[in-house]
């Protein structure tokens, strides 16, 4: 019965999706290292359910007191693609196309299929332009994007990396560490709610609150035209409590990630991966805000404060590991490049939502499918952005 | 034959009293999903309901009061969250999700 409820939850919250019962070596390694760390900490060893879906979230859930980890491989794939695009800032069209794809997915997740059509249509047009010589949507790569053998073959003697000259292997390493960090962050939430990290909270809460107060004062000074209503939400207890929990979970997740990855990667590599991962997640949230038509101001406060906090934590980690790095400073080249590659696309994708010409053209091409049949409409959206879906199942491209 | 429906629903976080009422319905099982994701920044709690058709009708009655106080529920299906503000909307969605429903038509 518990399994049946879990299946109901997974299939209701994720669509289109496929489950992947045969955990490959890549995820086996990731999850055994995660379980190792957890076993030192507590006797929790929750089963892992791998899925691949548009929902793109990792989640720790408890149904009838039974704990499970649900991990969506599409999150790893998305982070991987975003890092690849970030590393090629000259290819602006790819950044725009990928942002359009993400916007379409966010709208589709919210059931706003008609609204998703123009951005889906534009995504397809841009992809055709980018990959004129190849009809295959290269954004939607094989599920096995991370071949473990590649790592073994190419393991470096000198594990240092140059952030702006990354090869595919390095990007794969960044993806692997990012996925570990994301999963540990979710696990930390669970430990938090189950009162299993009370000592950790006691030791770190003061530091967290100081950082929150300092950052919030700084942000409010920086932005003079903050609306009163936004300020009210921002100063509310709920907002602060949630934010403090997120910050504590970030801290614990960083500690876990270092413990899990330090044997295979340098501190610099781990720091770079976590930093990029947090920027990617921030951009994904921003796109969700655009799709939800909210002004994103709460999300802006939340992610800015967490951004400062995370970079401070990562600086401490580097100091602990006796590393001197230029990566972490608040005006670091990474953050600047991120602004250029992704964040500056906000206005572009906002315009897409209201572009009459694009709306008319896409309606002319595909509007007939959107009149009454929800399934046909979603299949059209999916196919335009490179998802091969049928009856709610995703065909795997190998 | 009695039909059973499995349903994932989101209820507003600060309205736990509705869960107590729902739990009292016969032929209806309810499980609260404790999730690291939904508990974070979203004001709703996911629950899984396993219920017979008759029990679902009783659920509509309870929801009528809930909706009158301007509360929402969201039904999660096929990866989408569908907001319900009234019993009519709730029943319409339930009909669409019914296992006996052969075609899957709805408004795009």
How would you explain this protein's 3D organization?
The complex is a heterodimer of chains A (about 400) and B (about 110). Chain A is an alpha+beta fold. Chain A folds into two domains: about 70 residues, no CATH class; about 280 residues, no CATH class. Helices cover about 65% and strands about 5% of the residues of chain A. Chain A is built from 16 helices and six strands. The radius of gyration of chain A is 21 Å and the shape is globular. The relative contact order of chain A is 0.14. About 5% of the residues of chain A have low confidence. Chain B is α+β, with helices and mostly antiparallel strands and about 110 residues long. Chain B has a single domain, classed as Ribosomal Protein S8, Chain: A, domain 1, CATH 3.30.1370. Chain B has four helices and five strands, in the order βαβαβαββα. In chain B, strands 2-3-1-4-5 form a five-stranded antiparallel beta sheet. In chain B, strand 4 and strand 5 form a beta hairpin. Chain B is globular, with a radius of gyration of 13 Å. The C terminus of chain B is likely disordered. Chains A and B meet through helix 1, strand 3, helix 7, helix 10 and helix 16 of A and strand 1, strand 2, helix 2, strand 3 and strand 5 of B. Strand 3 of chain A pairs antiparallel with strand 2 of chain B.
